[in-house]
Amino acid sequence: MTPALATGILITSLVLAGWALVAALRERWLNRGHLALAAVIEVAVLAQVVIALVRMAGGEKAAEPATFIGYLLTVALLLPAATVLAYMEQTRWGSVIMAVAGAVVAVLMLRLQQVW
């Protein structure tokens, strides 16, 4: 795990969550900016996952390896799944889905740092 990258992901995903929540409160669906930010976060998440797996293969160990791997898989798959669900629900509820996903990614990154 790279702490600076994890912190960047955490902050950016909270920005996405807040921005999507504003869209939901305005009864709007996501715009391209939301989706672009989600894509940027996903690229950063995938980079973090690769870094963590390489370090684990190199001999570093997480405090709880099974939990750590579970969190890694969840954080890697969450934003793409939320984007698909939000795209299927092109109402304010799609924005709510993305807001919740952004908040969950932030929590998962925090937990990944703690378990590492």
UniProtKB/TrEMBL annotation:
Keywords, in A-Z order: Membrane, Transmembrane, Transmembrane helix
Membrane-spanning segments: 34-54, 66-87, 93-112
Superkingdom per UniProt: Bacteria
The protein's name in its UniProt record: Integral membrane protein
Organism this protein belongs to: Luedemannella helvata
